[in-house]
Amino acid sequence: MKALILKDLFNIKKQGKFIFGVVLIYGLIGMFLDVNFLGPFLIILCLILPINTFSFDKYSKWDNYALTLPVTRAQMVISKYLLGLSLAVFAILINSLFYLISYLIPGSQPIQIEVHLIFCYSILFASLICFSILFPFVFKLGIEKSRIVLFVIFLIPSISITLFPELFDLIEDKFGFLMQYSFVFIILVSLVMLISIFTLSICISIGILNKKDF
Q: Which end of the chain has fewer CB atoms within 10 angstroms, the N or the C?
């Protein structure tokens, strides 16, 4: 399992300088405008990088080779999810680093730990939900066709915000009652939901790969 994750990390490392440069640019922009500006970009980056590892696997015919190794198909699937989880945690650390640095700038507002922790959890939640939706399609349809699904994941929220701005008011009316509960309770409930969806997605992906012929 560890070797599978390291294999993907070495592939990602090939793009290291480009990734570092882009994250640095977005981070600096966020420091002087709004530190939360970096969050959505990190979510997108967390999705793109694991998807790129699927592309590397396809063009190197890794899956065919992996089946000759003492590695189960379940381990191949789980390693991708653990990679995504690791990248999401790394994204939170990067966001936290720029967050702390931004408040060293003269005139900046005091650090709001609770707000930042909620924002970090939002990055984790959004990233893992996107993984859970996308990965089964990748294992089922292949990387090329699944890029359409990735596009739709970002397109639907964008269109919804643009064409239906009143949607937020509707959501607030329907689910506003949740605000009477503490943030801790809401986070715990969402965490249980997140773990359930993430685990279900892993099981679905394992089932798909077990039935797949290479």
A: C
